[in-house]
Structure formats: structure tokens, C-alpha cells
Amino acid sequence: MNASYRIDGMTCQGCARSVTKAIQAVSPTTEVAVDLEAGVVAITGPADGDQVKRAVEDAGFDFVGPA
Amino acid sequence: MNASYRIDGMTCQGCARSVTKAIQAVSPTTEVAVDLEAGVVAITGPADGDQVKRAVEDAGFDFVGPA
Q1: Does the entry feature the keyword Metal-binding, yes or no (chains A, B) (predicted)?
Q2: Most B CBs within 10 Å: which of A27, A51, A57, A58, as the mutation test of the B interface?
Q3: In this complex, do B58 and A20 lie within 8 Å of one another by their Cβ atoms?
Q4: Cα(B35)–Cα(A56) distance, rounded to whole angstroms?
Q5: The predicted structure's pLDDT at residue A53
Q6: How far apart are the first and last CA of chain A?
């Protein structure tokens, strides 16, 4: 599954890494590409939207929705 | 329980919030104070060291140990 989500609150590479790890903690085989400038995370793999939303929010970022 | 831990990789307030939320996701009543400059997180509440370590690592930061 490929999907892109708008995520607010990522301001540096540490934030980008944090979002990536949080998603991979719930879905280890999912690939995550963060566009920090755009505030968009592109997902390739089995993680579904609800898993991504929960992981992102638990990591302290704002899950806005599909990008 | 009060404890302080050295955590590497936090570079901005987004990172600090991420670490705080990650710890509170596993232990909601734990208070977390981040000293970004020092790379130290002070914990007040029931979260134990193993929980903190796992939450911090799942969030993409490096848990170094007691500060």
C-alpha cells in the first residue's frame, strides 16, 4: 500500500527520524519517506492509516490526514 | 519515582515534545521535563527505566542511560 499523509509539527531531521521510527515501531517493514519542507510523509508497506495516525500522535506530532 | 536519563538526538522543541509524548504514551501519568541543551530528560512518576528506554528508542532517539 502506498499513501501520503500530511503531518504537522516536524521541524528538524530529529523530528523526521522520530516519525519514521514511530511508524516502523508498529509496522517494521513499512518504508517511510519524510518531506520535512512539505510536512508530508509517504508510506510504502502494510501500515494502514489508523496505525500511522496513532503512531504519529503517540510520537507527539499532528496527523492532519491524506496528503 | 524520580529519575533522569541522558538521551541523544533531540535537536529542537519538536524532538522534545516527541520524547515527552512517547514516554507518556506508555505511562500517561508520568511527568516529563526535557532539558534540550543538556540532552537530559527528568521523569517523575511510575514509568520505569525499561519503559522509558523502549519508548525513547521507538521514537527514534538514543537512550544513553542514567544522567
Answers
A1: yes
A2: A58
A3: no
A4: 22
A5: 96
A6: 15
Question: Domains in chain A, ordered, with CATH?
Answer: 2-66 (3.30.70.100)
Q: Is A4 left (phi over 0), alpha (psi -120 to 50) or beta?
A: beta
Write the single-letter amino acid at B67.
Answer: A
Do the interacting molecules here have an ipTM over 0.85?
no
Question: C-alpha cell of A9?
Answer: 509539527
Whether residue A1 is predicted with pLDDT greater than 90 in this model: the reply is no
pLDDT digits (tens, 9 = 90+) for A19-55: 999 999 999 999 999 999 999 999 999 999 999 999 9
Judging by DSSP bridges, how do beta strands A31-35 and B2-8 pair with one another?
A: unpaired
E-state strands within chain B: 2-8, 31-35, 40-44, 62-66
List C-alpha distances in Å: B58 to A2, A20, A65, B18.
22, 10, 22, 11
φ, ψ for residue B21, nearest 5 deg:
-65, -40
Residue of B nearest to A57 (CA): B21
